Amino acid sequence: MELYTGLQKLTIKNSGLRSIQPRAFAKNPHLRYINLSSNRLTTLSWQLFQTLSLRELRLEQNFFNCSCDIRWMQLWQEQGEARLNSQNLYCINADGSQLPLFRMNISQCDLPEISVSHVNLTVREGDNAVITCNGSGSPLPDVDWMVTGLQSINTHQTNLNWTNVHAINLTLVNVTSEDNGFTLTCIAENVVGMSNASVALTVYYPPRVVSLEEPELRLEHCIEFVVRGNPPPTLNWLHNGQPLRESKIIHVEYYQEGEISEGCLLFNKPTHYNNGNYTLIAKNPLGTANQTINGHFLKEPFPESTDNFILIDEVSPTPPITVTHKPEEDTFGVSIAVGLAAFACVLLVVLFIMINKYGRRSKFGMKGPVAVISGEEDSASPLHHINHGITTPSSLDAGPDTVVIGMTRIPVIENPQYFRQGHNCHKPDTCFREIMLNPISLPGHSKPLNHGIYVEDVNVYFSKGRHGF
C-alpha cells in the first residue's frame, strides 16, 4: 500500500483475507473509508487504524474470535466510532457458537490507565528535572515518553514496580530555553488501546534581544525588533544614552505571543534631530539584555562647517536655533541696492517740490515774473518779456505783478470776471488776454489813462470802457 499514498477509499470484499499487518496503512494517511466485510478475518489490531481519520469502517461477515484482541471493536461500537454501531458484528466463542459483539464479556481486558508526576513542570534554564510516568492495566501496558524534538532529553529509565504497573522516568539535563512551552507526552498501550498523559514544560530564562534592525521606511520609519524572555520582559528605549519618551512623533508598537515580543519603534516624519544611537533594554526578574543600533534619518544641514553658526541654547523640546552670518559680498550688494532706492526716492521728492513751486504758468501765458513793454521802433509789439537778454536796474527790482513800458514800472491787476466768460480760444481772432493797468501817464498826455489793454497775437490795443474797465 506504500505506492498509494493518496488513497482515500479502499474496499476488499469476498477475497478470503485472513490477516493484515498492524502498519499496513501507515503510508496511506488520507484513507477515509475501508470495507473489509465478507472475508475470513479472525483478529484485527486497532493499531492498524491508529494514524487514520476514518469516517466508516465495514467489518461485517467475518469470523472474529471472541477474545481480548477485538475488545477495541466492542468499545468503538459502544462509542459509535467509524459507524460500527450501525453494523451487526459477531464473534465466535470457544464452543463455536456465534455471539453478538456487544455481548462479549472478557475479564481483565481494559484500556490502560496512566498517570504522571507533574501536570505542569516549571524549571529555570540550566536546571535538571525528572518526570515519572506510570502505566497500569491488564494486560500490562507498554509505557513510553514521546520526546521527538525535545532538546534537553538525556535518559529514559524504565522501572517495573509491580506486576500491573509500568513506570518510566524522563530525566532532563541542563534545560534550555529552546524547550520552553514543549509538551511532554507519555503513552501507555496494550491490545485494547492506548491512553496518554501530557506535561507542559515551562522554562524561565533571562531576556534576549534576538534582532534589532536599522530604520526602514514603511508607512512610517520602523526600527524592528524581536525579544525573547520568560517571564516576558519589559522594554525601554534610550536615545544617545538618555531615556526616550514616547510622543506623537515617536512611539512603540509590538505584540506579545508567549515568550516572544516583536514590534517596531516607529517614527512619524523624523528629522536630523532624531539621528543617533538607539538602545533597546529588555528586563525581567532573571536578568537584563540590551542592544544598540545607529539610526540615521536625514543629513544635518550645513554639515561642512560650523564657523558661521551661532548656536542658541536649546530649550527642550524646541530644537536649537542657528543664526547664519551672510557673506560680505551679499551685504555689499544689498547696501548698493538700498542706496540706489533711497537716492531715487529723494530725487522724486525734489522733482515734485520743484514742479509745485516753479512749474505753475501765469494766467497771462507769459513765463517769468516780469513783463516789459519796450519802446523800440523796430519791435512789432510795444509789450515784450524782460528776458530778451536786456537787463536793467529797474528790471531787477520789478515785482511779480508789474509790466515795464520803456523804463517805467506799471503794476498789473487781473480782472477775474474776464476769465469767467466763455471765449473760444481755438480761434486766434477771438482769444484775448486782458490786463488791468493802474492809472499811468504817457508822454504827450496830460491825464492819466484808465484803459484796458488787449493783446491779440503780438499787437497791443487800447480800448476805453470795455469789459468793465
TrEMBL record:
Transmembrane segments: 332-355
SUPFAM superfamilies for this protein: Immunoglobulin (SSF48726), L domain-like (SSF52058)
Signal peptide span: none
Superkingdom classification of source: Eukaryota
UniProt KW keywords: Disulfide bond, Glycoprotein, Immunoglobulin domain, Leucine-rich repeat, Membrane, Receptor, Repeat, Signal, Transmembrane, Transmembrane helix
GO cellular component, one term: plasma membrane
Residue ranges annotated for the Ig-like domain, each copy included: 112-202
Record GO biological process: cell surface receptor protein tyrosine kinase signaling pathway
PROSITE patterns: IG_LIKE, LRR
Keyword Calcium among UniProt keywords: no
Any one GO molecular function term: ATP binding
Pfam families given in the database record: I-set, ig, LRR_8, LRRCT_2
UniProt xrefs under CDD domains: IgI_TrKABC_d5
Coiled coil segments of this chain: none
Glycoprotein listed as a keyword: yes
InterPro entries cross-referenced by the UniProt entry: Cys-rich_flank_reg_C, Ig-like_dom, Ig-like_dom_sf, Ig-like_fold, Ig_I-set, Ig_sub, Immunoglobulin_dom, Leu-rich_rpt
Subunit structure: Exists in a dynamic equilibrium between monomeric (low affinity) and dimeric (high affinity) structures. Binds SH2B2. Interacts with SQSTM1 and KIDINS220. Interacts with PTPRS. Interacts with MAPK8IP3/JIP3.
Protein name: NT-3 growth factor receptor isoform X3
Organism: Carlito syrichta
Lineage: Eukaryota, Metazoa, Chordata, Craniata, Vertebrata
